[in-house]
Amino acid sequence: MHANRNKTVINRLGLALLPFALALSTNTLAADTAPDGEVEVLNWWTSGGEAKALGALKDELSDQGIGWKNMPVAGGAGTNAMAVLRSRITSGNPPTAAQVLGYDAQDWAERDGLSSLDEVAKAGKWDEVFPQPLQQFAKYEGHWIGAPFEIHSTNWVWANKSLMDELGIEQPKTWDDFIASLKKAKDAGYTGLAYGGQPWQDTTVFENVVLATGGADFYRKALIELDPEALDSATMTQVFDHLRELLKYKDDNSPGRDWNLATAMVINGKALYQIMGDWAKGEFLNANLKPGTDFMCFRTPGTQDAVTFNSDLMIMFDTDDAQQQQMQQTMAKIIGSPEFQITFSQFKGSVPARMDLSADKLDACAQRGYEQVKSAAKNHTLMGSMAHGYAAPASVKNAVFDIISSFVNSDMPSDVAAEQLAAAVQGATS
Ligand code: GAL
Protein backbone atom coordinates (compact mmCIF):
# COMPACT_ATOMS: atom_id res chain seq x y z
CA MET A 1 0.00 0.00 0.00
CA HIS A 2 1.79 3.16 1.18
CA ALA A 3 5.03 1.21 1.14
CA ASN A 4 8.17 2.97 0.03
CA ARG A 5 8.70 3.55 -3.63
CA ASN A 6 11.58 1.14 -4.18
CA LYS A 7 9.69 -1.75 -2.63
CA THR A 8 6.77 -1.01 -4.93
CA VAL A 9 8.99 -0.85 -7.97
CA ILE A 10 10.64 -4.12 -7.03
CA ASN A 11 7.31 -5.85 -6.48
CA ARG A 12 6.09 -4.82 -9.87
CA LEU A 13 9.18 -5.49 -11.91
CA GLY A 14 10.47 -8.60 -10.23
CA LEU A 15 13.86 -9.18 -8.64
CA ALA A 16 15.60 -9.99 -11.92
CA LEU A 17 15.18 -6.40 -12.97
CA LEU A 18 16.37 -5.00 -9.67
CA PRO A 19 19.44 -3.05 -10.83
CA PHE A 20 17.41 -1.49 -13.60
CA ALA A 21 14.58 -0.72 -11.22
CA LEU A 22 16.87 1.08 -8.81
CA ALA A 23 18.35 3.09 -11.61
CA LEU A 24 14.94 4.37 -12.64
CA SER A 25 13.88 7.76 -11.47
CA THR A 26 11.90 7.47 -8.25
CA ASN A 27 9.12 9.22 -10.08
CA THR A 28 8.51 6.33 -12.45
CA LEU A 29 5.38 5.12 -10.73
CA ALA A 30 4.50 8.39 -9.12
CA ALA A 31 1.28 10.17 -9.92
CA ASP A 32 3.37 12.73 -11.73
CA THR A 33 1.47 13.34 -14.94
CA ALA A 34 -0.73 16.05 -13.54
CA PRO A 35 0.87 19.48 -13.77
CA ASP A 36 1.75 21.30 -10.55
CA GLY A 37 -1.24 21.96 -8.37
CA GLU A 38 -3.56 19.64 -10.28
CA VAL A 39 -5.06 16.27 -9.56
CA GLU A 40 -5.68 13.91 -12.42
CA VAL A 41 -8.77 11.80 -11.75
CA LEU A 42 -9.77 8.77 -13.81
CA ASN A 43 -13.54 8.15 -13.83
CA TRP A 44 -16.47 7.04 -15.97
CA TRP A 45 -18.85 9.81 -15.02
CA THR A 46 -19.75 11.12 -18.44
CA SER A 47 -23.58 11.29 -18.49
CA GLY A 48 -25.33 14.59 -17.68
CA GLY A 49 -26.14 13.74 -14.06
CA GLU A 50 -22.81 12.02 -13.44
CA ALA A 51 -20.80 14.93 -14.81
CA LYS A 52 -22.71 17.38 -12.62
CA ALA A 53 -21.97 15.30 -9.54
CA LEU A 54 -18.29 15.11 -10.44
CA GLY A 55 -18.33 18.87 -10.93
CA ALA A 56 -19.18 19.22 -7.23
CA LEU A 57 -15.80 17.64 -6.38
CA LYS A 58 -13.97 19.79 -8.89
CA ASP A 59 -15.54 22.92 -7.37
CA GLU A 60 -14.64 21.93 -3.82
CA LEU A 61 -11.05 21.29 -4.85
CA SER A 62 -10.91 24.57 -6.70
CA ASP A 63 -12.09 26.37 -3.54
CA GLN A 64 -9.01 24.92 -1.88
CA GLY A 65 -6.71 26.02 -4.69
CA ILE A 66 -6.41 22.59 -6.30
CA GLY A 67 -6.73 22.25 -10.07
CA TRP A 68 -8.52 19.49 -11.95
CA LYS A 69 -7.41 17.34 -14.85
CA ASN A 70 -10.30 15.14 -15.87
CA MET A 71 -9.58 11.68 -17.25
CA PRO A 72 -13.01 10.42 -18.33
CA VAL A 73 -13.43 6.94 -19.82
CA ALA A 74 -17.03 6.52 -20.99
CA GLY A 75 -18.81 3.23 -20.30
CA GLY A 76 -21.26 2.41 -17.51
CA ALA A 77 -20.12 0.33 -14.54
CA GLY A 78 -16.51 1.19 -15.37
CA THR A 79 -15.77 -1.70 -17.69
CA ASN A 80 -13.73 0.46 -20.07
CA ALA A 81 -12.30 2.62 -17.31
CA MET A 82 -10.71 -0.36 -15.59
CA ALA A 83 -8.95 -1.41 -18.81
CA VAL A 84 -7.53 2.10 -19.24
CA LEU A 85 -6.46 2.22 -15.59
CA ARG A 86 -4.64 -1.09 -15.96
CA SER A 87 -2.72 0.16 -18.96
CA ARG A 88 -1.81 3.43 -17.20
CA ILE A 89 -0.45 1.46 -14.27
CA THR A 90 1.40 -1.01 -16.47
CA SER A 91 3.11 1.82 -18.29
CA GLY A 92 4.17 3.33 -14.96
CA ASN A 93 1.94 6.34 -15.31
CA PRO A 94 -0.84 6.22 -12.71
CA PRO A 95 -3.29 9.11 -12.32
CA THR A 96 -3.53 10.89 -8.96
CA ALA A 97 -6.73 9.02 -8.18
CA ALA A 98 -9.34 6.76 -9.74
CA GLN A 99 -12.98 5.84 -9.27
CA VAL A 100 -13.25 2.10 -8.60
CA LEU A 101 -15.77 -0.41 -7.28
CA GLY A 102 -15.70 -3.06 -4.53
CA TYR A 103 -13.56 -6.04 -5.47
CA ASP A 104 -11.51 -3.95 -7.89
CA ALA A 105 -10.48 -1.69 -5.00
CA GLN A 106 -9.29 -4.74 -3.08
CA ASP A 107 -7.44 -5.92 -6.13
CA TRP A 108 -5.56 -2.64 -6.51
CA ALA A 109 -4.72 -2.63 -2.81
CA GLU A 110 -3.32 -6.12 -3.06
CA ARG A 111 -0.92 -4.93 -5.76
CA ASP A 112 0.64 -2.64 -3.20
CA GLY A 113 0.50 0.72 -4.94
CA LEU A 114 -2.10 2.78 -3.07
CA SER A 115 -1.80 5.69 -0.66
CA SER A 116 -3.15 5.13 2.82
CA LEU A 117 -6.14 7.22 3.82
CA ASP A 118 -5.90 6.21 7.48
CA GLU A 119 -5.14 9.67 8.86
CA VAL A 120 -8.07 11.33 7.15
CA ALA A 121 -10.27 8.38 8.09
CA LYS A 122 -9.28 8.60 11.72
CA ALA A 123 -9.89 12.34 11.93
CA GLY A 124 -13.26 11.92 10.19
CA LYS A 125 -14.27 8.87 12.31
CA TRP A 126 -14.84 6.83 9.16
CA ASP A 127 -14.84 3.59 11.17
CA GLU A 128 -17.96 4.83 12.94
CA VAL A 129 -19.92 6.46 10.15
CA PHE A 130 -19.58 4.18 7.12
CA PRO A 131 -21.57 0.91 7.23
CA GLN A 132 -19.74 -2.38 7.70
CA PRO A 133 -20.64 -3.95 4.34
CA LEU A 134 -18.96 -0.97 2.68
CA GLN A 135 -15.91 -0.93 4.97
CA GLN A 136 -15.11 -4.45 3.84
CA PHE A 137 -14.26 -2.98 0.45
CA ALA A 138 -12.97 0.48 1.35
CA LYS A 139 -10.41 -0.96 3.79
CA TYR A 140 -7.65 -3.42 3.03
CA GLU A 141 -5.98 -5.36 5.81
CA GLY A 142 -7.42 -2.91 8.31
CA HIS A 143 -6.27 0.26 6.47
CA TRP A 144 -8.48 2.70 4.59
CA ILE A 145 -7.67 2.68 0.87
CA GLY A 146 -10.86 4.12 -0.66
CA ALA A 147 -12.93 7.22 0.04
CA PRO A 148 -16.63 6.32 -0.43
CA PHE A 149 -18.59 8.89 -2.42
CA GLU A 150 -22.08 7.49 -1.83
CA ILE A 151 -24.24 4.42 -1.68
CA HIS A 152 -26.09 3.51 -4.82
CA SER A 153 -28.63 0.75 -4.98
CA THR A 154 -29.58 -1.24 -8.00
CA ASN A 155 -33.06 -2.47 -7.03
CA TRP A 156 -35.03 0.54 -8.25
CA VAL A 157 -37.64 1.08 -10.91
CA TRP A 158 -37.84 4.55 -12.55
CA ALA A 159 -41.22 5.36 -14.04
CA ASN A 160 -42.78 8.05 -16.22
CA LYS A 161 -45.55 9.53 -14.08
CA SER A 162 -47.73 10.95 -16.83
CA LEU A 163 -47.65 7.64 -18.69
CA MET A 164 -48.71 5.87 -15.50
CA ASP A 165 -51.59 8.34 -15.13
CA GLU A 166 -52.57 8.09 -18.79
CA LEU A 167 -52.65 4.29 -18.64
CA GLY A 168 -54.29 4.16 -15.19
CA ILE A 169 -51.32 2.36 -13.65
CA GLU A 170 -50.86 2.37 -9.88
CA GLN A 171 -47.46 1.63 -8.40
CA PRO A 172 -47.21 -2.16 -8.72
CA LYS A 173 -46.75 -4.00 -5.44
CA THR A 174 -46.17 -7.53 -6.69
CA TRP A 175 -44.26 -9.11 -9.55
CA ASP A 176 -47.54 -10.02 -11.26
CA ASP A 177 -48.80 -6.43 -11.00
CA PHE A 178 -45.49 -5.25 -12.39
CA ILE A 179 -45.79 -7.50 -15.44
CA ALA A 180 -49.46 -6.54 -15.88
CA SER A 181 -48.51 -2.85 -15.97
CA LEU A 182 -45.79 -3.52 -18.57
CA LYS A 183 -48.36 -5.32 -20.68
CA LYS A 184 -50.71 -2.36 -20.44
CA ALA A 185 -47.99 -0.07 -21.76
CA LYS A 186 -47.12 -2.44 -24.58
CA ASP A 187 -50.76 -2.87 -25.59
CA ALA A 188 -51.09 0.92 -25.76
CA GLY A 189 -48.14 1.12 -28.17
CA TYR A 190 -45.41 2.19 -25.73
CA THR A 191 -42.20 0.40 -24.82
CA GLY A 192 -42.76 -1.20 -21.43
CA LEU A 193 -39.17 -1.53 -20.31
CA ALA A 194 -36.45 0.90 -21.38
CA TYR A 195 -33.53 -1.46 -21.76
CA GLY A 196 -29.84 -1.11 -22.45
CA GLY A 197 -28.42 -4.31 -23.91
CA GLN A 198 -24.90 -4.25 -22.48
CA PRO A 199 -23.55 -7.06 -20.29
CA TRP A 200 -23.45 -5.04 -17.06
CA GLN A 201 -27.00 -3.81 -17.68
CA ASP A 202 -28.29 -7.32 -18.44
CA THR A 203 -26.84 -8.41 -15.10
CA THR A 204 -28.25 -5.38 -13.28
CA VAL A 205 -31.73 -6.46 -14.38
CA PHE A 206 -30.93 -10.11 -13.63
CA GLU A 207 -29.85 -9.36 -10.06
CA ASN A 208 -33.11 -7.50 -9.52
CA VAL A 209 -35.01 -10.58 -10.64
CA VAL A 210 -32.89 -12.84 -8.40
CA LEU A 211 -33.82 -10.73 -5.38
CA ALA A 212 -37.47 -10.38 -6.38
CA THR A 213 -37.89 -14.10 -7.07
CA GLY A 214 -35.76 -15.74 -4.41
CA GLY A 215 -35.56 -13.12 -1.64
CA ALA A 216 -32.53 -11.87 0.28
CA ASP A 217 -31.29 -15.25 1.55
CA PHE A 218 -31.36 -16.73 -1.91
CA TYR A 219 -29.58 -13.69 -3.35
CA ARG A 220 -26.83 -14.04 -0.76
CA LYS A 221 -26.45 -17.78 -1.25
CA ALA A 222 -26.40 -17.63 -5.02
CA LEU A 223 -24.61 -14.40 -5.90
CA ILE A 224 -22.39 -13.71 -2.88
CA GLU A 225 -21.62 -17.12 -1.42
CA LEU A 226 -21.73 -18.60 -4.95
CA ASP A 227 -23.35 -21.77 -3.63
CA PRO A 228 -23.54 -24.21 -6.59
CA GLU A 229 -26.81 -25.65 -5.35
CA ALA A 230 -28.45 -22.25 -5.28
CA LEU A 231 -27.00 -21.31 -8.66
CA ASP A 232 -28.35 -24.42 -10.36
CA SER A 233 -31.70 -24.69 -8.59
CA ALA A 234 -35.41 -24.68 -9.31
CA THR A 235 -35.51 -21.13 -7.92
CA MET A 236 -32.79 -20.01 -10.34
CA THR A 237 -34.72 -21.61 -13.19
CA GLN A 238 -37.71 -19.57 -12.11
CA VAL A 239 -35.52 -16.45 -12.04
CA PHE A 240 -34.67 -17.04 -15.69
CA ASP A 241 -38.36 -17.61 -16.48
CA HIS A 242 -39.15 -14.24 -14.92
CA LEU A 243 -36.30 -12.59 -16.77
CA ARG A 244 -37.54 -14.04 -20.06
CA GLU A 245 -40.98 -12.66 -19.35
CA LEU A 246 -39.57 -9.23 -18.60
CA LEU A 247 -37.59 -9.17 -21.83
CA LYS A 248 -40.86 -9.32 -23.82
CA TYR A 249 -41.37 -5.69 -22.87
CA LYS A 250 -38.11 -4.21 -24.16
CA ASP A 251 -37.82 -2.83 -27.69
CA ASP A 252 -35.81 -4.30 -30.57
CA ASN A 253 -33.21 -1.53 -30.56
CA SER A 254 -31.93 -2.36 -27.09
CA PRO A 255 -28.66 -4.13 -28.00
CA GLY A 256 -25.68 -1.95 -27.10
CA ARG A 257 -27.78 0.95 -25.81
CA ASP A 258 -26.18 3.07 -23.07
CA TRP A 259 -28.04 3.19 -19.77
CA ASN A 260 -28.63 6.94 -19.92
CA LEU A 261 -30.24 6.65 -23.35
CA ALA A 262 -32.61 4.09 -21.86
CA THR A 263 -33.32 6.57 -19.03
CA ALA A 264 -34.05 9.20 -21.68
CA MET A 265 -36.75 6.92 -23.14
CA VAL A 266 -38.57 7.07 -19.79
CA ILE A 267 -37.94 10.81 -19.46
CA ASN A 268 -39.36 11.42 -22.96
CA GLY A 269 -42.44 9.28 -22.42
CA LYS A 270 -41.43 6.60 -24.94
CA ALA A 271 -41.11 3.94 -22.27
CA LEU A 272 -42.90 3.30 -18.99
CA TYR A 273 -40.14 1.95 -16.74
CA GLN A 274 -36.42 1.41 -16.42
CA ILE A 275 -34.87 -0.98 -13.89
CA MET A 276 -31.60 0.69 -12.97
CA GLY A 277 -29.44 1.91 -10.11
CA ASP A 278 -30.26 5.32 -8.71
CA TRP A 279 -27.69 7.10 -10.87
CA ALA A 280 -30.65 7.05 -13.31
CA LYS A 281 -32.33 9.57 -11.01
CA GLY A 282 -29.41 11.93 -11.68
CA GLU A 283 -30.62 12.10 -15.30
CA PHE A 284 -34.19 12.99 -14.30
CA LEU A 285 -32.92 15.66 -11.91
CA ASN A 286 -30.54 16.99 -14.54
CA ALA A 287 -33.59 17.43 -16.81
CA ASN A 288 -35.24 19.46 -14.01
CA LEU A 289 -37.83 16.79 -13.30
CA LYS A 290 -39.28 16.22 -9.84
CA PRO A 291 -39.84 12.88 -8.13
CA GLY A 292 -43.51 12.26 -7.34
CA THR A 293 -44.63 14.84 -9.93
CA ASP A 294 -42.80 14.04 -13.16
CA PHE A 295 -41.37 10.65 -12.38
CA MET A 296 -41.80 7.91 -9.81
CA CYS A 297 -39.25 5.78 -8.03
CA PHE A 298 -40.04 2.53 -6.30
CA ARG A 299 -38.18 -0.57 -5.26
CA THR A 300 -38.46 -3.37 -7.80
CA PRO A 301 -41.59 -5.26 -6.68
CA GLY A 302 -40.63 -8.06 -4.33
CA THR A 303 -37.35 -6.44 -3.24
CA GLN A 304 -38.58 -3.91 -0.65
CA ASP A 305 -36.86 -5.57 2.29
CA ALA A 306 -33.33 -5.61 0.95
CA VAL A 307 -30.90 -3.35 -0.85
CA THR A 308 -28.37 -4.44 -3.45
CA PHE A 309 -25.72 -1.75 -3.26
CA ASN A 310 -22.60 -0.41 -4.86
CA SER A 311 -20.46 2.52 -3.88
CA ASP A 312 -17.88 4.45 -5.84
CA LEU A 313 -14.55 4.54 -4.03
CA MET A 314 -11.81 7.01 -4.81
CA ILE A 315 -8.47 5.29 -4.54
CA MET A 316 -5.22 7.26 -4.61
CA PHE A 317 -1.98 6.05 -6.16
CA ASP A 318 1.16 6.05 -4.09
CA THR A 319 3.50 8.91 -4.98
CA ASP A 320 6.73 10.52 -3.78
CA ASP A 321 5.54 13.97 -4.80
CA ALA A 322 4.71 15.76 -1.54
CA GLN A 323 2.28 18.13 -3.22
CA GLN A 324 0.38 15.27 -4.84
CA GLN A 325 0.27 13.45 -1.50
CA GLN A 326 -1.16 16.53 0.15
CA MET A 327 -3.79 16.95 -2.56
CA GLN A 328 -4.78 13.28 -2.31
CA GLN A 329 -5.41 13.67 1.41
CA THR A 330 -7.41 16.85 0.83
CA MET A 331 -9.50 15.11 -1.80
CA ALA A 332 -10.22 12.16 0.52
CA LYS A 333 -11.19 14.56 3.30
CA ILE A 334 -13.62 16.41 1.03
CA ILE A 335 -15.24 13.20 -0.24
CA GLY A 336 -15.85 11.89 3.28
CA SER A 337 -17.15 15.18 4.68
CA PRO A 338 -20.85 15.47 5.67
CA GLU A 339 -21.55 18.48 3.44
CA PHE A 340 -20.01 16.93 0.33
CA GLN A 341 -21.77 13.60 0.87
CA ILE A 342 -25.13 15.41 0.71
CA THR A 343 -24.26 17.72 -2.21
CA PHE A 344 -22.83 14.90 -4.28
CA SER A 345 -25.86 12.64 -3.78
CA GLN A 346 -28.20 15.49 -4.67
CA PHE A 347 -26.71 15.46 -8.16
CA LYS A 348 -25.81 11.79 -8.46
CA GLY A 349 -29.13 10.25 -7.40
CA SER A 350 -27.50 8.22 -4.64
CA VAL A 351 -27.71 8.45 -0.86
CA PRO A 352 -24.81 9.38 1.42
CA ALA A 353 -22.43 6.58 2.32
CA ARG A 354 -22.18 8.06 5.81
CA MET A 355 -25.00 6.80 7.97
CA ASP A 356 -25.00 9.75 10.40
CA LEU A 357 -26.49 12.57 8.33
CA SER A 358 -29.80 14.37 8.30
CA ALA A 359 -31.92 13.49 5.25
CA ASP A 360 -33.64 16.92 5.20
CA LYS A 361 -31.93 18.14 2.06
CA LEU A 362 -32.46 14.91 0.09
CA ASP A 363 -35.36 14.44 -2.34
CA ALA A 364 -38.26 12.09 -1.61
CA CYS A 365 -36.69 9.06 -3.37
CA ALA A 366 -33.38 9.51 -1.58
CA GLN A 367 -35.03 10.06 1.79
CA ARG A 368 -36.77 6.73 1.44
CA GLY A 369 -33.69 5.13 -0.05
CA TYR A 370 -31.49 6.36 2.82
CA GLU A 371 -33.87 4.86 5.41
CA GLN A 372 -33.96 1.57 3.49
CA VAL A 373 -30.16 1.43 3.27
CA LYS A 374 -29.89 2.10 7.01
CA SER A 375 -32.37 -0.59 7.95
CA ALA A 376 -30.88 -3.06 5.46
CA ALA A 377 -27.46 -2.41 7.04
CA LYS A 378 -28.95 -3.30 10.45
CA ASN A 379 -30.83 -6.36 9.18
CA HIS A 380 -27.90 -7.80 7.19
CA THR A 381 -29.77 -7.31 3.95
CA LEU A 382 -27.47 -4.64 2.53
CA MET A 383 -25.89 -6.91 -0.07
CA GLY A 384 -23.35 -6.20 -2.76
CA SER A 385 -24.42 -5.84 -6.38
CA MET A 386 -23.06 -8.51 -8.74
CA ALA A 387 -23.24 -6.22 -11.77
CA HIS A 388 -21.19 -3.53 -10.00
CA GLY A 389 -18.39 -5.56 -8.52
CA TYR A 390 -19.62 -5.82 -4.94
CA ALA A 391 -20.80 -9.44 -4.87
CA ALA A 392 -17.87 -11.34 -6.35
CA PRO A 393 -14.41 -10.75 -7.82
CA ALA A 394 -14.05 -9.63 -11.43
CA SER A 395 -13.39 -13.14 -12.79
CA VAL A 396 -16.72 -14.41 -11.42
CA LYS A 397 -18.54 -11.22 -12.37
CA ASN A 398 -17.36 -11.52 -15.96
CA ALA A 399 -18.36 -15.19 -16.10
CA VAL A 400 -21.84 -14.23 -14.87
CA PHE A 401 -22.04 -11.40 -17.43
CA ASP A 402 -21.32 -13.91 -20.22
CA ILE A 403 -24.08 -16.31 -19.25
CA ILE A 404 -26.70 -13.68 -18.55
CA SER A 405 -26.04 -11.84 -21.80
CA SER A 406 -26.12 -15.05 -23.83
CA PHE A 407 -29.46 -15.85 -22.21
CA VAL A 408 -30.80 -12.38 -23.05
CA ASN A 409 -29.62 -12.60 -26.65
CA SER A 410 -30.78 -16.14 -27.45
CA ASP A 411 -33.58 -18.60 -26.81
CA MET A 412 -31.62 -20.45 -24.15
CA PRO A 413 -34.06 -22.38 -21.92
CA SER A 414 -34.17 -21.34 -18.26
CA ASP A 415 -32.95 -24.63 -16.81
CA VAL A 416 -30.00 -24.67 -19.20
CA ALA A 417 -29.16 -21.10 -18.16
CA ALA A 418 -29.17 -22.08 -14.47
CA GLU A 419 -26.93 -25.04 -15.18
CA GLN A 420 -24.53 -22.94 -17.25
CA LEU A 421 -24.46 -20.22 -14.64
CA ALA A 422 -23.38 -22.68 -11.94
CA ALA A 423 -20.76 -24.18 -14.25
CA ALA A 424 -19.37 -20.78 -15.29
CA VAL A 425 -19.12 -19.59 -11.69
CA GLN A 426 -17.40 -22.80 -10.72
CA GLY A 427 -14.98 -22.42 -13.61
CA ALA A 428 -14.16 -18.87 -12.52
CA THR A 429 -13.54 -19.81 -8.91
CA SER A 430 -11.50 -22.97 -9.36
C1 GAL B 1 -21.86 2.36 -11.58
C2 GAL B 1 -21.30 3.47 -10.75
C3 GAL B 1 -22.21 4.62 -10.75
C4 GAL B 1 -22.72 4.97 -12.14
C5 GAL B 1 -23.00 3.75 -13.01
C6 GAL B 1 -23.25 4.03 -14.47
O1 GAL B 1 -21.00 1.26 -11.57
O2 GAL B 1 -21.12 3.01 -9.43
O3 GAL B 1 -21.61 5.71 -10.12
O4 GAL B 1 -21.83 5.83 -12.70
O5 GAL B 1 -22.01 2.80 -12.92
O6 GAL B 1 -22.15 4.58 -15.09
From TrEMBL:
Signal peptide limits: 1-30
InterPro entries (alphabetical): Bact_solute-bd_prot1, SBP
Q: What Gene Ontology cellular component terms go with this record?
A: periplasmic space
Q: Which UniProt keywords apply?
A: Signal, Transport
Q: What is its main location?
A: periplasm
Can the keyword Transport be found in this entry's annotation? yes
Compartment(s) of residence: Periplasm
Question: Cross-referenced SUPFAM superfamilies, in alphabetical order?
Answer: Periplasmic binding protein-like II (SSF53850)
Q: What does this protein do?
A: Part of a binding-protein-dependent transport system for a sugar.
Q: Can you tell me which family this protein belongs to?
A: Belongs to the bacterial solute-binding protein 1 family.
Q: What is the protein name stated in its UniProt record?
A: Probable sugar-binding periplasmic protein
Taxonomic source organism: Salinicola socius
